[in-house]
């Protein structure tokens, strides 16, 4: 994850929750890192918050349930081998592979206020490939929107193995995750840049106010009007936070105007508060214990660097440098 700000519920349900499940499954050796170099691809003109954002993001990870005793948690820039592998992979990656990347133009459009006509931005998928194959990953947990990036990583791994006639890197497979479509409180994609996010750290009055301001069924103008839960973002959240019998009752009552949007939102706020209570408890603990966080990050950096050194020794031998 790029440390560009606080994590929100979209991040939790779109990626972080899945990371915790993979970690706890016992089937994977998991590596999760703070992608601070990737943050610079778009935030190169304003880097003053990256260090603090990185620390805050690790706190959010731990609060959400990632465990440094089960997973390797580290900071990308602390493992310099990532930069070396990126350099070598950039020598063999055809330019056309990068310019056809569908997210390249999409992100330029979304971030039109920033000048992204840089080599770093064009080449970030190669750095992403280096991040993945450095640890000889066989699987990468992604949503369907990230499939083009994983396919590019696969092509780069194949090309390296072919050019240097040695199978240094496994060709990673995507571990497709079901990402629920969580919209922000204004009905658009949840994003801190839109100022419409419910953050993992939100609690109490602030959390209740945000949920109270959520857009609902746009066709339901009055309480006596029947609603359509299928197009209501509040109902989508109920599907994640409320027990199945309650979800079924809300679905039924909304359609016959048996429950109003205000009461529905109050019910949701209570459920979200209840679900996030243990997250906030762990968050408070780690915010009070900064030295413990730093030590856990150092430990993860060392674990990642040891593997990266071994990989790069193989890479240098294959490339004959």
CATH-assigned homologous superfamily of the largest domain: HUPs
The helix fraction, in percent, is: 55-70%
Total individual domains: 2
Helix run count: 14
Rounded mean pLDDT is 94
- Would you report the number of β strands? 4
Topology, please?
Elements: H1 9-25, E1 30-34, H2 36-43, H3 50-64, E2 71-75, H4 81-92, H5 95-99, H6 102-110, H7 119-122, H8 124-133, E3 139-142, H9 147-163, E4 173-176, H10 204-212, H11 233-241, H12 244-255, H13 261-288, H14 290-319
Parallel strand pairs: 1-2, 3-4
Helix pairs in contact: 3-13, 4-8, 4-14, 8-9, 10-13, 11-13
Protein described:
By secondary structure, the chain is mostly helical. It has 2 domains: 9-182 and 289-319, Rossmann fold, CATH 3.40.50.620; 203-285, Tyrosyl-Transfer RNA Synthetase (Orthogonal Bundle). Helix content is 58%, strand content 6%. It has helices spanning 9-25, 36-43, 50-64, 81-92, 95-99, 102-110, 119-122, 124-133, 147-163, 204-212, 233-241, 244-255, 261-288, 290-319; strands at residues 30-34, 71-75, 139-142, 173-176. Strand 3, helix 9 and strand 4 form a beta-alpha-beta unit. It is elongated.
């Amino acid at each position: 994850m790029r440390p560009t700000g606080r994590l929100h519920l979209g991040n939790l349900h779109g990626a972080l929750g899945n990371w915790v499940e993979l970690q706890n499954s016992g089937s994977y050796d998991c590596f999760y890192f703070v992608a601070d170099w990737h943050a610079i691809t778009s935030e190169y003109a304003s880097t003053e918050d990256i260090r603090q954002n990185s620390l805050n993001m690790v706190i959010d990870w731990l609060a959400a349930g990632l465990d440094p005793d089960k997973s390797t948690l580290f900071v990308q820039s602390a493992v310099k081998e990532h930069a070396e592998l990126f350099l070598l992979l950039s020598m063999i990656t055809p330019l056309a592979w990068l310019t056809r990347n569908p997210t390249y133009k999409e992100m330029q459009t979304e971030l039109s206020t920033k000048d992204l006509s840089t080599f770093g931005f064009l080449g970030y998928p190669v750095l992403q490939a280096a991040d993945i194959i450095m640890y000889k990953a066989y699987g990468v947990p992604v949503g369907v929107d990230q499939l083009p990036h994983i396919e590019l990583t696969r092509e780069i791994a194949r090309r390296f193995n072919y050019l240097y006639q040695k199978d240094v890197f496994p060709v990673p497979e995507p571990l497709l995750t079901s990402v629920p479509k969580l919209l922000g409180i204004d009905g658009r994609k949840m994003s801190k840049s839109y100022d419409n996010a419910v953050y993992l750290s939100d609690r109490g009055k602030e959390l209740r106010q945000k949920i109270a301001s959520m857009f609902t069924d746009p066709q339901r103008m009055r309480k006596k009007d029947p609603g359509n839960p299928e197009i209501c973002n509040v109902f989508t959240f109920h599907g994640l936070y409320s027990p199945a019998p309650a979800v079924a009752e809300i679905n039924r009552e909304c359609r016959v105007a048996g429950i109003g949007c205000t009461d529905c939102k109050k019910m949701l706020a209570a459920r979200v508060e209840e679900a996030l209570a243990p997250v906030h408890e762990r968050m408070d603990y780690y915010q009070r214990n900064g030295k413990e966080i730093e030590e856990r990050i150092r430990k993860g950096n060392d674990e990642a660097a040891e593997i990266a050194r071994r990989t790069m020794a193989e890479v240098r031998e294959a490339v004959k440098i």
